[in-house]
Amino acid sequence: MNTDRSRSIPVSQPTLVHPPTLRPRPFALALLFLISLSISIAGTPRDCHAASIDVRHPDGRIEEVPVIEVGRAIYLSEDVVSLLYSSSKYWRPDLLKMTLRVGDHRLKLTADNRNVVIDERVVRLRDPVLYLDGRLLLPVQLVTDVMPFLVDAYPVVWNREEGLLAFGAPGVSIIETRVNRLVDGVEIVVRPSGPARYQTRENEDGSLFLRFAAARVADQELFYDTTDSSLRDLFWAMDGDTAVLHIVPSDSLKDYRVTREGRPERVVVRLSDTTLPPDGSESSFALDVLTRPSTTRRPIRRVIIDPGHGGSDPGCSGEGGLLEKDLTLALAERLATELKKNHSIGVVMTREEDLDLSLSARTEFANRNRGDLLISIHLNSSPVSGVAGTEVYVHSSGIGARDRIAAAVEDAQTRFEQEVVGGILDQDLRFVPWEAVQEGQKSGSGRVARRIQKELGSLDGFPARGVKEAPIAVLEGANMAAVLVEIGFLSSGESAGLLRREDVQDRIVRGLARAISGMSKEGS
Amino acid sequence: MTALLKTWPSPRWSNLRQISGSFILLSALTLFLATACGPDRSQQETAEDDVLSDEGMFLRSALVYFVKGDGETLVGEKRELAPADPSRESLARLLIDELARGPILPDHHPVTPPSLEVTGIFFDDMGGLYFDFVGSSLRDWGWGSSSEFLFVRTIVRTMAVAFPEVRRVIFLIDGARAESIAGHLDARNPFEVAEW
Fold first, then answer.
1. Residue B12: its H or E element
2. Residues of chain B found within 8 Å of residue A28, distances taken between Cβ atoms
């Protein structure tokens, strides 16, 4: 390790603080005084350096943590170790002893002692635990060589040259392997702890190999129903430092596709008994199957405008008692007038007065009125008063939705099959779960959102903060392009002042109308 | 290899360089006292096993997340917490209290209403953590999509760091699933740690 950049800060040799019970022992006192004095004079105090290292977590996140370098040994403060291992601790300041609870295990640590008691066993460390500056310091060896075995966690590697303490090193760990049934096949989801390099190989017998370089399988458990006839076999094996997933599909599965998906990082193998659409399709295959989004764009003839909040729900508020529910209604009315008058676009409003309306009632209303676009108008608020700008949200179901949707489809098909006379399942049945509806409209929603962001972002005082995806309740289930627009921040005094002005409201409404009108010509 | 051990100045320590002479005597004296007048050994052994004795306390280091001045970036502040008991529920409750109490550092901002109150906390066996909030304690807070987003993110992040086994967080209001916490985000489904 190159320590040229390190600033050497000589500090004391670690010492014990005052013990609780003093019991004079005259002979021992004299002898030890002489010994300690000779040690003090003969030897110089060891150098301690306050420094920091990087900790790489299993998910790839890198965090800088402080350490103390004592001679050649690296020490972490006990609170850092507690955080890394989510351990609770019991501290006896009078005895300078600490008990760390890691999972079901107890580690007993004593200052200036190399011995660590783990449950009933004693482990001797190369370097002692230290007590310095009011903190218990633990040698890095405890973190790398002892603690991982207690919690059956990822391997932990200390790389002194790089100053890196890596959890899950080397490379990545495969932390989950899950199999999901699809309507016409299966998908195998592999979750590595971070960005992973992989190769796909196909055997002549139809089996597949997914090879993850510099990886290890942290969790060998495979989440799939072994009675599932879609797969003849599925297992992990190690080939040197390469983790290999062997997939042996049934004969009925003729096609496969391997894709990398983010947040969290995962590699998905989809095996199907039909020809899969080409790569790069916007929504996942499972949802394609479920919703069959139309490839043709719908012209926007009717817009459902939803003024956010209302009734007992005032939304957020700005200076001078400006309420979000009032401003959203005012802006919605202006937008309705503008669209009808100047763009010949039909408008239906979810509310035209100050009343309570649940979020699902708004969505159902939009679907009943067969809108081509649902636009929910809101004003934003942030705990940071200086934040300003426009945000446009589109719906995203999130990773949990896939399982919920698949389960809903299966339930419905089972129920439907039982109810059909003669037990024949209607092959034309298209059961679309509520959560999946908006997924099928996602590309149209995204196009509208980008247009709105561009129009409003060009207005003074309303910088574009981007199109964002989130599980927005009012958009879920909307069978049309749907966006939620947070026009500006009422928490910002300056923005609230602008939003009060009628000329600014007019400019906002004209911008929204231009975006919608543009989409009307292009189709959603 | 480039040195990656980063250092920072520590003025308090550097002063010790100037008093190193005195320090030799001090350390000798301390060592002398510590060695010669040590605690009663039998008493020490007993205390080591008596984990729940009154003389010590349960402590837990935890990170509590707030937001930076850009209104988007989360930042953790370290807390030393002393839960009433070693249960996860106790610690989770303390963490919610800390979130409601707000940040210590001046350039960090709170993300939860100061009145935030939890009536129930429950960990299931599938990695789910449930919070049942008092509905009235969520009022009187500047709720926009941004603040609701941050509310969820900070709670999920704080809990995920404190309890690595937690995979998802579920919010109830007054004992029931709510459509949303503040009219934007869908609270009918769990918030997955991997996404938030």
1. helix B11-18
2. 35-36
Beta bridge partners of A238: A243
The residue that leads in pLDDT, B82 or A326, is A326
Mention every residue, 6+ apart, whose C-beta is less than 8 A from residue B82: B57, B58, B59, B60
Task: Using an 8 Å CB-CB cutoff, list chain A residues near B28.
Answer: 33, 36-37, 39-40
Could you count the other beta carbons within 10 Å of the beta carbon of residue A106? 18
Q: At which residue do the structure tokens 């060589």 appear?
A: A145
With CB atoms and an 8 Å threshold, state whether A106 touches B91. no
Give residue for tokens 């992973």: A196
For residue A150, the chain B residues in CB contact (below 8 A) are none
Q: What is the pLDDT of residue A516?
A: 93
Q: For residue B188, give the chain A residue with the closest CA.
A: A473
Q: Count CB-CB contacts under 10 A for residue B29.
A: 15
Q: Look at B37 and A383 and tell me if their CB atoms are within 8 Å.
A: no
* Spatial separation of the C-alpha atoms in residues A406 and A396, rounded to whole Å: 16
| CB environment A405-427: b (16+ within 10 A), e (fewer) | bbebbeeeeeeeeeeeeeeeeee
**Same domain as A465, residue A374:** yes
Handedness of CA A266, A437, A336, B186 (dihedral sign): negative
Domains in chain B, CATH or no CATH each: 60-192 (3.30.300)
If one counts every other C-beta atom within 10 angstroms of the C-beta of residue A135, the result is 14
Q: Which residues span the domain enclosing A455?
A: 302-399+432-522
pTM of the model: 0.60
**Does A242 lie in the same domain as A120?**
no
What is the domain count for chain A?
3
Tell me what pLDDT residue A260 has.
72
Residues A109, A100: Cα–Cα separation, whole Å: 8
> Considering only CB atoms, which chain B residues are within 8 Å of A360?
179
Q: A372 with A303: CB under 8 angstroms?
A: yes
Q: Could you say which residues from 80 to 139 on chain B have a Cβ atom under 8 Å away from some Cβ of chain A?
A: 80, 83, 86, 91, 109-111
Q: How many CB atoms lie within 10 A of CB B105?
A: 10
CB A1 within 8 A of CB A161: yes
Residue A14 within a domain: no
- Which residue of chain B has the CA closest to A24? B37
Q: Tens digit of pLDDT for each residue in A303-324?
A: 999 999 999 899 999 988 899 9
